[in-house]
Amino acid sequence: MTSIKGLRIVGFLEGISFLLLIFICMPLKYMADMGMPNKIVGMGHGVLFIAYIYLVLQVHFDKKWGIKNSLWSFIASLLPFGTFVADKKIFEKYAN
């Protein structure tokens, strides 16, 4: 598996976990006093976030990305739906 393919897969999973955390687990925690889903999904999201950052760095060096692509990829990981946009605008170009 190429590094860009791994980045796309982890980016997708990281994006899903971020959305689950924001739109399902956080409301459950604060509105229904259910903290356990937040802990479980939060741990998974943390692991996926670290893997995503690692893979962005790996692709940066493998594909000789400029600082612009890497910086936008990092910023995308901080925004809801950001990894999906990064996949469409950045990662898809390098997948071939």
Automatic annotation (TrEMBL):
<keyword id="KW-1133">Transmembrane helix</keyword>
<keyword id="KW-0812">Transmembrane</keyword>
<protein>
    <recommendedName>
        <fullName>DUF3817 domain-containing protein</fullName>
    </recommendedName>
</protein>
<feature type="domain" description="DUF3817">
    <location>
        <begin position="5"/>
        <end position="90"/>
    </location>
</feature>
<dbReference type="Pfam" id="PF12823">
    <property type="entry name" value="DUF3817"/>
</dbReference>
<feature type="transmembrane region" description="Helical">
    <location>
        <begin position="6"/>
        <end position="28"/>
    </location>
</feature>
<keyword id="KW-0472">Membrane</keyword>
<feature type="transmembrane region" description="Helical">
    <location>
        <begin position="69"/>
        <end position="86"/>
    </location>
</feature>
<dbReference type="GO" id="GO:0005886">
    <property type="term" value="C:plasma membrane"/>
</dbReference>
<keyword id="KW-1003">Cell membrane</keyword>
<feature type="transmembrane region" description="Helical">
    <location>
        <begin position="40"/>
        <end position="57"/>
    </location>
</feature>
<dbReference type="InterPro" id="IPR023845">
    <property type="entry name" value="DUF3817_TM"/>
</dbReference>
